[in-house]
Automatic annotation (TrEMBL):
Keyword line: Cytoplasm, Isopeptide bond, Nucleus, Phosphoprotein, Transcription, Transcription regulation, Ubl conjugation
Name of the protein: Zinc-finger domain-containing protein
GO BP term, example: regulation of DNA-templated transcription
A Pfam family that the UniProt record links to this protein: zf-4CXXC_R1
Keyword hit for Transcription regulation: yes
Region named Disordered: 1-22
Biased composition range(s): Basic residues: 1-10
GO terms under cellular component: cytoplasm; nucleus
Length: 152
C-alpha cells in the first residue's frame, strides 16, 4: 500500500552562468592552439575544465562558443573530437566564424539528451558505424538514413 502522493518541489533555478557571446576578435591564438584534435591527451579537470555538450566531459581544452544570443549554458560548447566526429565541423573554424551557431541552436543536435527531449531514441556510439558505411561524421550518416527527425 502506497502512502499519499507527494507534491513535487518547484523546479530549481538554473545556476549556470549566463551565456556570453564572445566576438571573434576575442579569440586568441593560444585558445586556438588548445583545441583538442583527438581524445588522446585531453586533460580532465572538474574544477577548471569546461563541459562539452556532446560527451559531457569536463576538460581544459578550448571548446566552441555559440554566437546565438538565445543559446544557454553548456549547450553551445563542443570539444574538437565531438564537433568533428558527430557533425563534421572544426572547432577552430567555428570559433573564427562570427555567425556560427551550435548544433542545438540549429536543431541538428544528436546528443542523447536532445534526441530524447525531441522524442527520438539516443544514438549511442555511432561514429565507428558511420565510418564503416563511408561517412566522415554521425550527422551525415543520420541524415542519409533519415534518422535525424524534424530539426534537420
Amino acid at each position: 500500500v502506497r502512502g499519499p502522493a507527494r507534491r513535487r518541489a518547484s523546479p530549481r533555478p538554473n545556476p549556470s552562468k549566463p551565456h556570453v557571446v564572445r566576438p571573434v576578435e576575442d579569440i586568441t591564438p593560444d585558445e586556438l592552439q588548445l583545441v583538442a584534435d583527438s581524445l588522446v591527451g585531453k586533460v580532465y579537470n572538474r574544477i577548471t575544465g569546461t563541459t562539452c555538450h556532446q560527451c559531457r566531459q569536463k576538460t581544459v581544452d578550448t571548446k566552441t562558443c555559440c554566437r546565438n544570443e538565445g543559446c544557454r549554458g553548456v549547450q553551445g560548447q563542443f570539444c574538437g573530437p565531438c564537433l568533428r566526429n558527430r557533425y563534421g565541423e572544426d572547432v577552430r573554424k567555428a570559433l573564427l566564424d562570427p555567425e556560427w551557431h551550435c548544433p542545438p541552436c540549429r536543431g541538428i543536435c544528436n546528443c542523447s539528451f536532445c534526441r530524447q527531449r525531441d522524442g527520438r531514441a539516443p544514438t549511442g556510439i555511432l561514429f565507428p558505424l558511420a565510418q564503416y558505411h563511408g561517412f566522415s561524421d554521425v550527422h551525415s550518416y543520420l541524415s542519409r538514413c533519415g534518422l535525424l527527425g524534424q530539426g534537420a
